[in-house]
Predict the 3D structure of the following.
Amino acid sequence: MRYDSYIICTSPRSGSTLLCRMLQEAGAGHPDSHFHTASLADWRREHGLRVEADLAEIVQAAKRTGSGDGDLFGMRLQRHSFEFFMRQLGLLNPECSSDVARIEAAFGRTLFVYLNRTDKLDQAISYVKAQQTGLWHRAPDGTEIERMAPPAEPEYDGVRLAQQRDTFAGMTAAWETWFSAQGIAPLRINYSDLSKDPSHEVNRILTALGRPTVEIVPSVARLADQVNRDWAQRFAAEGR
């Protein structure tokens, strides 16, 4: 079965940047967070549109960006921007009776990929540490890919970690509820499997999409180090 598009349903620090980059390198569109924030003005700026551009123009511009030079549209959909995104598609396609119908009216036949990180504490540690240090992604050679703030030393905060762990658990529950309500059986990718053999997981997606498989060298490295391990041990010792 050949698809027109795919959506990576996920939450932060689940390996989505690695997955998106590898899929792009494999020629599977240009997946990214094309509708990242809950703001039409931000969407217009993201896609280089004039301030008067309406919703239909925004979606078409996003489709062009997300398709790259090919005929397959890819995007990453984070849970925090999901509700606003779906409301806009509801306004764009009011005749549709389900979220899946609204998505496919906008993007064609869609494969849903669910990228999840099972260990929510590890996910929370990764997130809080990135916020504190400012470094979000790094290449295998050590080159920084994405830095959001000046360098700073990470400081353990058990309360913050517990809150973030619970937030990520809530995002997972929300995705599962939506899949069930919409009758979606997503292609499931786990962070641990993606970390161990990223090429294999990318090829699972390509095969599901009806596209040729490839061999790709990952261009994003894991940031977990002794700090992550120390925080996890301290958190467990506190009995949180």
